[in-house]
Amino acid sequence: MATHLKAETTTPGKGGFLSLSPIFVFALLFLGISIAAGDFYKVSLTIIFTISSIYSLFILRGMPINERISIFSRGAGQENLMLMIWIFILAGAFAQTAKDIGAIDSAVKLTLYILPSNLILAGLFIASCLVSMSIGTSVGTVVTLVPIAAGIAGSTGESPELVVASVIGGAFFGDNLSFISDTTIASTRTQEVSLSDKFKANFLIVLPAAIITVILYAFMGNGGSFHQSVSMEDVLKTLPYFVVIVIAICGVNVFLTLSIGILLVFISGISLHASSVEGMLISMGNGIASMGELIIISMLAGGMLEVIKTAGGIDYIIDHLKLHIHGKRGGELTIGFLVGIVNLCTANNTVAIISVGNLARAISKSHGINPCKSASILDTFSCIVQGLIPYGAQILMAAGLAGLNPVSIVPYIYYPMVLFVIAVLGIIVRYPKKYS
Asked: What does the DSSP 8-state code read for residue 222?
């Protein structure tokens, strides 16, 4: 009897609408409260996630409350999330100390000095594409470039949401395409294809999207004329940023990269008499504290999504979708939809690819889909969703560094939107033909 009861309380749910309902509760709360307040950015996401998280505990039926809380806590404290929180902490410290010694202002001056005034947005997007392609991580790209982008917005009068969004979009270009990206490695391994073959299939999809996005940004902006003079002190203050970019491109761990960046800012600030040791420590503390809300949101989202997974929500989606596949187009669209939905539920594109990877390979084999195309679809659609969810690590990080509401940035992240249209059209018209 005791053994039976114990097994019953630890058995995951069978799925169904109830297992997915926390996501709908979150969406309804956000829309309802925002409409009632007359402002979509007035109410903190922390409040909405707290209510949704409490509700999620009630969908785990047949379990003691302590076990439900344990499941939630397991998701809130999972290893990948804790690593991300460490990045939040170091990024906050680096960004604030760099800002307080004037490094961001100097980097902004250099950027405006180099780039034509009518190509600021396009230039930032291209720079973000190149950096993310080199370091293989969208989070690292956001940490490196968003503080500069936010400073440019303040100096030029451009919309801060638009400027920051251009960096986020470019960050997902490399996340999707880079040979050293987690998503690239996960998608190629699950589909049993080489990195180079997946790159060729993927590149033909993402390049048109990147070109269209550059053209869009080239025609946007306020069109003002910005003239900047740059001094040697500006160059020296900017060195920590350039060093961080270079060592990140060389493949150095993001934690070590940010730690080196903080050390260099310390040295730069003191040697240039821009701050004292005490002032630098205060700046670090303020930067870490500024990330508090993001850390809370991340942990609440992680816990709630773990509850959804335990309740059988992800398995429910997968099991029902795979029953309605017809032909190659249907198979490819199903793979894209599956990884997108799972990404929506997990807020982690690598985890989404790994979760769906085996099923995607089975769909590919049974419907004659080129595994290179399958790997490309997995990576592309996961990055599309990750690039547009306001509770994803990248947008939360960018919002925290720029002092913006994460929801306010999403409408301006054009690259994932354009990529979605091209990816779907590619499936429908069988492009690229070599892999279709």
From this structure: -
CA 395 – CA 263 distance, rounded (Å): 26
Whether the Cβ atoms of residue 185 and residue 141 lie closer than 8 Å to each other: no
CA distance 284 to 25: 37
CA distance 88 to 407: 18
* 120-130: pLDDT as tens digits: 888 889 888 88
Sign of the alpha-carbon torsion through 394, 399, 401, 402: positive
Tokens of 341: 């939905």
| 334 Cα distance to chain centroid | 23
DSSP designation for 250: T
SS3 275: coil
Whether the upstream peptide bond of residue 432 has omega within 30° of 0, thus cis, is yes
Q: How far apart are CA 238 and CA 234, in angstroms?
A: 6
CA atoms within 13 A on the CB side of 186: 25
From the list 207, 202, 189, 272, the residue with the least C-alpha distance to 235 is: 272
Q: What gap in Å lies between CA 163 and CA 142, rounded to an integer? A: 12
Q: Give the whole-angstrom CA distance, residue 291 versus residue 286.
A: 9
Using one digit for the tens of pLDDT, what is the confidence trace for 16-29? 778 888 888 888 88
How many H-runs (helices) and E-runs (strands) does the chain carry? 22, 0
- Pull the structure tokens for residue 310: 């335990």
Reported pTM: 0.72
Amino acid present at 162: L
The CB-side HSE value for 10 (13 A sphere, CA atoms) comes to 7
Taking Cα atoms as reference points, which of 3, 22, 6, 33 lies closest to residue 311? 22
Answer for the pair 282, 269: CB distance below 8 angstroms, yes or no: no
Cβ atoms of 266 and 280 within 8 Å: the answer is yes
User: Please, which residues have CB within 8 angstroms of residue 339's CB and are 6 or more apart in sequence?
Assistant: 352, 353, 356, 360, 377, 378, 381, 382, 385
What's the rounded mean pLDDT across residues 153-171?
90
